[in-house]
Design brief:
211 residues, 27% strand, Aminopeptidase
Length: 211
Amino acid sequence: MKQNLLSIASPFGGAVTLCKNSWEGEKSPDNVLSIVSGMHGDQMNGLYIHSRLTRFLDAIVAGHEPDFQLEGRVQLFPVVNVHAVQSGSRLWSFDNLDFDLAFPGNDNGEVAEQIARSLYTHTADSTHAILLKTAQAHYEDAPHVQCVDPDRPAKKMAQSLGLEMVQELSPAPAFKLSLFYHWLENSIPSLILSAGKPGALDRPSGDFLLK
């Protein structure tokens, strides 16, 4: 089910929106997995992965994947920085505010801060969370997991993904302004999945992460 969570008038015409797609199984209703991508406009792999996941989850709910059963709720946030994605730039040129440095957000702040606040609020009840990203500028990542000081649930979650490479990050002070930091502060087992390079769609890497 697609749901519009927030719509804000844009100075360039049209609205800036935050949407999510969600599916809910009959068992374990308190388990919530949130997957977020599109924090920056040049991260294309996350959009591809969300598209594939949406088709797969639709098929499970419709009964076309009899070997799989959905438990709990899965919610996908495919595009956070809509205008940056549309322009193909890392940041939205209107305010050049990095969405990954806008959390926990502000209901009365700039557009990016309001979207950040809504995203933070709608993922606060997650029992597990994943952030999809690509490498920094001028680099290309092989598909791998990133984590920060992982506890036992996070390590178990990372192991369940079946990826051979795990990178433990040593974040800078600005990390406290990120969504990932606030997930950890809320004791949500959380991971970052990174693959590919900015500004390019790497389908093989996306397919590898989905296996």
